[in-house]
Amino acid sequence: CSGMRDDLKRRLPHYVSDWTLTSKSSCKVLASILFMFFTSIAPAVTFSVLLNDKTEIDGNSQIGAVEVVLSSAVTGMMFSVFGGQPLCIVGVTGPVTIFTIACFNIAKQMDVNFLPFYCWTQIWAALMHMLLAMTNSCEAIKLVTRYSCETFGFLIGVIYIYTGIMEIANFFDDDEFELVTSYEQLLIALGTAWVALTLTNARSWTLGNPLVRDLIADYGATIAMILFTAVPYMGGATEVDIAT
């Protein structure tokens, strides 16, 4: 357990300051909080829709948006407090979603109840993580090149993009939705991405003073998410049947 003791010694002097220093730069902290909130909630909702469809038994989904968002919130808060790393973000990712769907398919093939099966799977995973931490196995990361890390990051990025594209494409393939509904979904998706990217690059603008540009860049993603969340409720858009 020497690795865990060393981690504790390194983190303990900074544990309190990670929480108290926020008052000295509240504007930056608020921007970071809102940014991480939306970047955490967006994939959670996206992947929960996929899990909702892929874990259905007799018309009842085993895991949906409520379960994913609630578990992400609870585990995130617990990790921040007890893990000594309040700046570390915990949330659902593409590989976790794929693993969950695989567990569901295995449970279905074995004709066992999915939720208890999945619970025990996660308990064993937790025990394995504890064992790795106690044996300081993370030191083996020194033997891994950046190529492996970048490849894994690329995989997650591709899964995010693929899932987003497929969700939009499904609106065009599903006869349940009118064409105008599909186009509005596409507009909202592309508009959110474009506005977020444009505003977060505000620091390179020549318009306005540096303080304003910095503020816009900090809150760019938040502004985009709020703006295009409100679009379906504006003007004539309210007459379009938007799937939620």
TrEMBL record:
Matching Pfam families: HCO3_cotransp (PF00955)
Main location: membrane
Residues annotated as transmembrane: 29-51, 87-107, 113-135, 147-165, 185-203, 215-235
Origin: domain of life: Eukaryota
Keywords tagged on the record: Membrane, Transmembrane, Transmembrane helix
Domain Bicarbonate transporter-like transmembrane intervals: 1-177
UniProt-listed InterPro entries: HCO3_transpt-like_TM_dom, HCO3_transpt_euk
GO cellular component term of the entry, any: plasma membrane
Subcellular location per the Swiss-Prot or TrEMBL entry: Membrane
Topology of the protein relative to the lipid bilayer: Multi-pass membrane protein
Keyword Kinase assigned: no
GO MF term (any one): solute:inorganic anion antiporter activity
BP GO annotations: monoatomic anion transport; monoatomic ion homeostasis
Name of the protein described by the UniProt record: Bicarbonate transporter-like transmembrane domain-containing protein
